[in-house]
Amino acid sequence: MLDLSIISVSYNTRELLRECLRSIFASRGDFTYEVFVVDNRSNDGSPEMVRTEYPQVKVMISSVDGGYAYANNLGLRQSSGRYILLLNPDTVLPTNALSQMLSFMEEHPEAGAAGPKLVRADGSLDLACRRSFPTPLVSFYQMTGLSRILPGSPRFGRYNLTYLDPDETAEVDSVVGAFMMVRRQAIEQAGLLDESFFMYGEDLDWAFRIKQKGWKIYYYPKVQVLHYKRESSKQRPLRTSFEFYRSMYIFHRKHYAANTFFLLNWLIFTGILLRGALAIVWALVRPRG
After folding, report:
1. What is the pTM of this model?
2. How many structural domains compose the chain?
């Protein structure tokens, strides 16, 4: 069995994908791996580029635009590694990232999944790289702005765990699917990604189910990865806005609604609808470029 299966889902990100693959194959360390690129019906020549420049990569073309979870599951079903890495094409790895993450997982047998410190192109922390689950209370703090006003508070800063030192390893609820290394045994117990989620929330849902099976999830900042972020989503802003808020609705309905007072459920769903509608209107009217 291989040590690692890397799955990258592409949608019209040819140049970023090229850079991501270059960084993968420049990796150092004593481990075996395979790489899958699952193309979500790109029209920019991404599959052709991969086949020409990286013939060792296993290219899969999705027959439908089924979203991020659907495409990753295509790769997951064909993978053979002891560990699986979901890796966005808008990431760039340092040469030791894969070996260090694999070592961390080996040293922490209780870890079902782990992720590194992700930094944006401007050097700032990608806040989504470590998160709490969006419980009704945590979501309330986020949607009312309390988490931004009091980011250092362990109570109000839970959404993105902004009260934690970004350079300290921590057990968290979830890491982000842009770089999410998962143990195969955890996947066998928790199942594949939920394809009800199109492009947001599937990583949180996966982490939730992995933790339900007794595994831990870690943020490991000794590995630092560049994340350009949202390059695919920029190309379809309306769909992106819709799916972001739709994923919030699905996650709450799936994991919290049954144990939440009906009036609070109504308020939560109404809030998601209103915020989503405003986001869609903004996507329609904001200037491009």
Report:
1. 0.91
2. 2
